[in-house]
TrEMBL record:
Heme binds at residue 500. Signal peptide: none annotated. It comes from the Eukaryota. Its cofactor is heme. Pathway: Secondary metabolite biosynthesis. InterPro entries: Cyt_P450 (IPR001128), Cyt_P450_CS (IPR017972), Cyt_P450_E_grp-I (IPR002401), Cyt_P450_sf (IPR036396), Cytochrome_P450_monoxygenase (IPR050121). GO terms for molecular function: heme binding; iron ion binding; monooxygenase activity; oxidoreductase activity, acting on paired donors, with incorporation or reduction of molecular oxygen. Keywords: Heme, Iron, Membrane, Metal-binding, Monooxygenase, Oxidoreductase, Transmembrane, Transmembrane helix. This is High nitrogen upregulated cytochrome P450 monooxygenase 2. CDD domains: CYP67-like.
């Protein structure tokens, strides 16, 4: 007995002519999607609603009830469209067909969105590299790369511009969202002025004031604690309060006061944070972001936080402060009046400074305390170095001295290596019509997105010997232990024209804070807290998100 063909199967008992009409319509729509990538409403309406609605007519001649025709037309159209897309993505004709990777990743970005929702991208991509090699296909058109020799060609001057993960956000793009390299260069100018060495000098007193306040808050907690080992504090939380208060001073002339209130009194920080995870997830399917923002409460959250940041920017303008903080440069107070940006842009840049400058720095500070607690010999050696550099009573304000403390800087680098705050790097893309590009030993077809996976590159034994071990001495300028040590593979602040604008500020802040708290306090492990598992609970929301990290703190005599 012969098998029925698709055209004979109920409910799609179509005549051959009608079947090819469905077929041709789906194929045409598929090609339109592939070549034009329509994002605006009208073409999407035509392709996803109008064409299947039109197919209802031929299908209605072949079904028993006319009411069945519309759902069948949409179902058949949708299924065939998905089938075409999947078949092409898995076929040997796809430009990225030669790169290995899991089928789920090759077929859709929804899998990556799911991994992001779990907070796991950094560990997941590392496991893929361990299994498949240096170049892994992690999306239909996306590659993850674990090859340090490609850092310069991809991220350096003349490399690739930022990718579509930054699309779909409302309003003018902030610096980090700017995909056009020329616009980016233009927008970056005030940031470069704000982080020049002369400007950095001005910020020392602002950092010092906030560290003094942090030390005071910790002292109060230690004082009021009745525990023998001192106060048990969540270092992730306190480091976060500190960095947010400090960035609030820099970006808007102050006003967060998380340390003073022991929490987020105003709610602005919580508002900003609440959007980060959602945006990290939807960044994989960024065409959905505008719809999400307009339909869901996410839109409200962003509008509210934007409104509050705008108010803060206006307050700071009214202060007419003479001090040269980040706001001074971002608002163009150092420029003629005619060249100053509108207040909306300044508020957006200020918000970026708070997001980019607080979670990142606080996650390194927390992880550094964690590594010291887990490596008593390293802790002891750092304590000795700090005590020798800043004898009793002296505040660690000398930034030149701080920058030469070899063990301190080894500990910071080692934390940034094992625990990069942006673990999965910054996406790049080669747009449509750009042709094929050769970067190092990699041939990239147009319309490819890629990222250099910082977490995997910095834990690769070909770059660093004993890569999973915390070894500050590997960073010594002389007498470093023998073994692989490829400093070109160390890029926690990224690289090239988009390298972190606040790198030098972050380093100054971290060096000063670590020395200051080690002069005053003794840190020890808190009984019952699981240090073995804390490290693997960190979540990658583009920026690392940390769970509580408890430490017992007592005053040093
Ligand atoms: C340990 C602390 C920090 C680390 C590891 C870090 C890392 C990074 C990384 C990886 C990027 C992405 C660069 C790219 O797209 O190629 C970035 C961008 C940026 N960071 Fe940081 N960051 C830190 C602290 C700060 C601080 C304190 C600020 C101060 C405001 C800051 C401001 C920025 C800005 C404005 C950008 C956008 C740069 C651009 O697109 O041109 N960061 N950072």
């Amino acid at each position: 007995m012969s098998q029925p063909t698709l055209t004979q199967i109920w409910p799609l008992r179509l005549a051959n002519a009608d079947f090819s009409l469905v077929d041709t319509s789906v194929l045409t729509s598929y090609l339109c999607f592939r070549h034009f990538e329509p994002q605006s409403t009208l073409p999407l309406l035509v392709l996803l609603v109008l064409i299947p609605a039109f197919l209802t007519i031929p299908i209605s001649y072949h079904v028993q009830s006319p009411y069945l025709a519309p759902p069948l037309a949409f179902l058949a159209y949708g299924c065939l469209l998905i089938l075409f897309i999947l078949a092409y993505r898995l076929s040997p004709f796809h430009p990225l067909a030669k790169y290995p990777g899991p089928v789920l990743d090759k077929t859709s970005k929804w899998w990556a969105a799911y991994i992001s929702a779990r907070g796991d991208p950094h560990r997941y991509y590392k496991s893929l590299h361990d299994r498949y090699g240096d170049v892994v296909r992690v999306g239909p058109n996306e590659l993850s790369i674990r090859d340090a020799s490609l850092i310069h060609p991809v991220l350096g001057p003349g490399g690739l511009p930022k990718g579509p993960r930054w699309d779909g956000r409302p309003g003018l793009p902030a610096l980090i969202e700017q995909r056009d390299p020329i616009q980016h260069m233009h927008q970056r100018k005030p940031w470069n002025r704000a982080f020049s060495s002369t400007a950095l000098k001005e910020y020392e007193s602002i950092v010092a004031k906030r560290i003094r306040q942090l030390v005071g808050c910790l002292e109060d907690r230690v004082h009021s604690s009745d525990q023998k080992e001192g106060a048990v504090l969540d270092m992730a939380q306190w480091m976060n309060y500190f960095t947010t208060d400090f960035m609030g001073d820099m970006a808007f002339g102050g006003g967060f006061e998380l340390m003073k209130a022991g929490g987020d009194r105003e709610g602005l920080w919580t508002l900003i944070e609440s959007g980060l995870h959602v945006i990290a997830v939807l960044g994989h399917v960024s065409y959905l972001l505008p719809a999400y923002l307009s339909m869901m409460r996410g839109g409200d959250t962003i509008q509210r936080s934007r409104g509050l940041c705008r108010e803060k920017a206006l307050d700071r303008l009214r202060m007419d402060a003479k001090r040269k903080d980040l706001f001074y440069y971002l608002s163009g107070e150092d420029m003629p009046e005619a060249e100053r940006p509108p207040i909306g842009n300044v508020a957006k840049d200020g918000t970026l400074a708070i997001i980019a400058g607080s979670d990142t720095t606080s996650s390194v500070l927390t992880a550094l305390v964690y590594y010291l607690l887990c490596n008593p010999a390293a802790y002891h050696r750092l304590q000795e170095e700090v005590d020798a550099a800043f004898p009793s009573g002296e505040e660690p304000l000398d930034v030149v001295k701080l920058s030469h403390m070899e063990w301190l800087n080894g500990c910071i680098n080692e934390t940034l290596r094992l625990h990069p705050p942006v673990p999965s790097g910054s996406q790049r893309s080669l747009g449509r019509g750009k042709g094929t590009k050769v970067l190092g030993n990699l041939i990239i077809p147009e319309q490819t997105q890629l990222f250099l996976h910082t977490y995997s590159i910095q834990r690769d034994p070909r770059n660093f010997h004993n890569p999973e071990v915390f070894l500050p001495e590997r960073w010594f300028s002389t007498d470093a232990p023998v073994g692989e040590h490829n400093t070109d593979a160390f890029f926690p602040f990224s690289y090239g024209p988009t390298i972190c604008a606040g790198k030098n500020l972050a380093l100054m802040e971290m060096r000063m804070l670590i020395c200051w708290v080690l002069r005053r306090f003794r840190f020890s492990k808190t009984l019952g807290f699981s240090y073995e598992t804390w490290d693997v609970t960190t979540e990658d929301w583009f920026v690392l998100h940390q769970h509580p990290m408890l430490a017992s703190i007592s005053r040093r005599e």
